[in-house]
Amino acid sequence: MKILQKLASVIIVAAAAVACSHEVESVPPTITNTPEEACFALPIDASRTTIDPDGRSTRWSEGDNLAVWAKRSNDEYTLLGEKFMLRYFSTEWDKAYFVGNIPTMNEEEYTYYISYPTPTTINGTEATYTVASEQSGEYDGKYDIMVAEPTVNGSLTTGKRVELNTIMRHQMHAIKITIPEGRNLFGMKFYELEVTFPQDVVGDITLDVTNPEAVPTYTNTSNVIKVKNEKGFDAGDDIWVFVLPGTIDGDVSYKVRGEHRSSEVASYPLTRTMQAGHVTPIRMATPEIYPYYTAVIFSISQNNLGEEFNFFDIYDTNNTHMGRFERNAENKYVVDYEGEFDANIYDNTTWRVVFDSENAIVETQVNLGDITSYTEQTRYMNVPYLFSENFSTLAQYDGDYKSGPYTSTSAASTAGRDLAQYGIASGWTGARTGCDAAGTAILVSGRVDCVIAGATRAYGRLDSPELTGIKPNKSVKVKVTFDYGGSRSGTSTYYPVGRVGYTTSSGILSGYATQFNNNPTFTEISDPVEVPSIPTSGSASSLSKSMTYTISECSSSHRISWHVGHMGYKSWKIDNGYGWMYIDNIKVQITK
Question: 0.90 cut: is pTM over it?
Fold first, then answer.
């Protein structure tokens, strides 16, 4: 049967309650009785969902399905869009068999309605199908929607066979675009075709299955069709698209895209009624003049955040928004350009990337390096940590860490200061801190002053910026890791001690001092954990230890806080010493 050339096809439908073997045999399966399964037998010459090499006739293909309604004489429905799937098919048979599970039917006359394929949604006898705006360009029978003329016959019950004579009415219009031999002026295969019509041609179509002549209802429509196929198209190929019936009156424009280049937009006038069940043939030659296609592909190498991101936004060096990208399985996010392209605009520029997850918003930067016009090039990036700091921008400074609490400089010995003045990010504050060499670890110092009656001590502290990467009103568990080392002055009687915890106090926070107290006193720090075995002979450029610390309920107002003191006491001797802890490579991740 020439499906695409006829408005209607007469289909003799044999229906029976059956149980069939799944083996394909040289003869149709034996029909037996079963209380649940029914099998429609469609003549082989009515097959219709895979295009034959002649480009006109079609056959059934795996995965085809029908929807069936059955109405009793009292207008009640026993079947309401029940699915019947293609199960048995062979070119050696004269029928193809569709099987479905149905409820028991009374022995009486029914009015049957059939549609192809199974609808996207069913509302009573209204069937809604989606004709996608993106199609493969291959003949796809799921878009060749059909509704049968109503027919009356007996029930589909066990032990009884029924034949239904009906006519299937095509509801869609097909466009067959042929690229003539020798007329692909694009010069190579193309993989995308975008066609823009003057009227809407795709969307949702709602049909009344009881009346194939009824006017359909169209919703969620669009006037653009994109054909995408990884196998590509070349001269001599046919491209199939299905559209909603209607009148086209105006300019139709199209463009194609190859692997590395894209055509200009071509257009031509078209006035035509796209009748249901008909085919519009188009002979297309791709445009002769074509600019190149340039693309920068971003790929995620590693996710350091601790939870998956939902999407990210990219901004160029001028803070122009270059696109929002949902996370995908391909890990491929493309910023592309059609037409003439000047690589000098973006060569070695740094772009900002902002990631959005369930609990956080974090950002990183990507340097594009050398951009080559008219090619695809990949740039790799990581999803950043919730927070990190390696002090690479920290300048050398002495700070105030060598002063004691009861000297002429006692005010400076515990006073907090803003550390942004030394080249690191805004929000870092500290007391009794310093840096031995630019770009190396920061140090936090404690001091002890022994007198005959006891000892006085000064405690240093370091506080991070607030963890503003956490979304407002969110509370998450986070893991803090950092490297550390240490050193001291004075005799072996003295040794540095440290704690790590958090604070929710904002602003510049001071250290503190004690008098005649040989016990470690750490105040103004929440959930402190001891930093074990701080070395006494290390340096800023060689940190031998690392530590992990967990905050169970962390919000955007939390700050990581380190406090350092110097312990020990030399009885009955006036003496002093100071010890410090080096801190570097701080990383904070969300942990589930």
Answer: no
